[in-house]
Amino acid sequence: MAKRRTILITGGAGFIGSHVVRRFVRMYPDYHIINLDKLTYAGNLENLKDVEKEPNYQFVHGDICDLEMLRGLFADEGVDGVIHLAAESHVDRSIRDPFVFAQTNVLGTLALLQAAREYWENSESNFPRRFHHVSTDEVYGALQPGEAAFCETTRYNPHSPYSASKASSDHFVRAYHDTYGLPVVITNCSNNYGPYQFPEKLIPLCIHNICEGNPLPVYGKGENIRDWLHVEDHAAAIDEVFHRGKDGESYNIGGINEWKNIDVVKLLVRITDELLGRPVGTSDALITFVKDRAGHDLRYAIDAEKLRTELGWEPSHTFESGLRETVQWYLTHEEWVQHVTSGAYESYYASMYDSSKK
Ligand code: NAD
Ligand code: TYD
Predict the structure, then answer these.
(1) φ/ψ of residue 227, rounded to 5
(2) What is the mean pLDDT of each run of 10 residues along the chain (358 residues)?
(3) For residue 85, how far is its CA from the centre of ligand 1 (angstroms)?
(4) Cα–Cα distance between 157 and 137 in angstroms, integer?
(5) CATH for the stretch 6-357
(6) Crossing angle for the helix pair 334-342 and 344-352, nearest 10 degrees?
(7) In the chain, what are the domain boundaries?
(8) How far is the CA of 336 from the centre of ligand 2 (A)?
(9) First CA to last CA across the chain, in angstroms?
(10) How far apart are CA 214 and CA 204, in angstroms?
């Protein structure tokens, strides 16, 4: 059989990665899609049940920090492209345990870059090579209200251990381009929402707590502002940049959709109560202001003009309807939520793989 273009997607069992894997498996039947994931607490193969039997999909259980394993995988499978999403991704966890963020996000990315470089320098392919690093807007630091949105030339100024680790990984990706000529692209995206997000992040946490009648913890006064983008719009942007972005360039991805946290939580209360058939205002009293996050960035806002003008990408979901669909998804996937919140998926997959779960 002729060799197919082989794309290695890391972190494909996580929230955004599962949407990227699903999109690529379905849209590119000619590609061989390998999902490499360590299956930490955030990785759940239930997220990919609908594509796991597709002939162009393969799951590999492994750690991106394991350079020897990566060397073998690149050579055995003939990897032509990488879409790198594997990471520790939760700011609050990074405040509690920064080291694992440096390990996975920095050293793991470095190992992946090195494996790609060694393999691509020493082998030929009929397919273009590309290393796409998926990063965050948080590398740019925080904006004041009224300040211009982050663009690709905004100076990096990370504040949390999470954003510092992602900024560092971005620098290594650029260094591999500038030093060794590795064909890289970087995308820096704003906050994502949508199905399969682990309920430690604001939106799924609130939906779950509203259903259960538990407090909705709003940090500080709820005045912090985030730009929210539907995860499928992020996956579509990654598809565009992976295929048509220019080597060595970075692209900002965002929803042009800034919201104060308190307003997001109030909107979630309204939508969730309505979809549960509860009277308006039932869950208002659950909103609870709690101690602020240390070093909490005030505002993120993305200028995605470069992506729009150069590659024609536009978000297709509006926030109100995207959020409504997302709440509906969580309400109709109680089993998924129950497995994730109880940790049942971890013991299930731990029994299938010789797992090194945290
Ligand atoms: P997530 O935490 O839901 O998923 C991360 C995945 O990576 C999990 O499946 C996990 O098992 C896997 N993983 C972790 N360590 C690994 C390792 N050492 N080796 C192999 N796999 C490992 O994260 P997410 O929210 O889907 O974010 C994915 C990527 O997108 C991250 O790089 C993140 O920085 C970036 N990003 C996220 C957002 C957001 O709003 N969530 C926004 C912009 C960028
Ligand atoms: P989060 O979903 O953790 O994403 P990030 O920190 O990467 O932006 O948080 C989104 C915003 O919501 C952020 O300003 C912190 C805030 N937040 C709360 O107010 N309460 C919570 O329980 C959580 C998890 C977040």
Answers:
(1) -100, 120
(2) 92 98 98 98 96 98 98 98 98 97 98 98 96 98 96 98 98 98 98 97 97 96 98 98 98 95 98 97 97 97 97 96 98 93 72 54
(3) 5
(4) 10
(5) 3.40.50.720
(6) 80
(7) 6-357
(8) 22
(9) 40
(10) 13
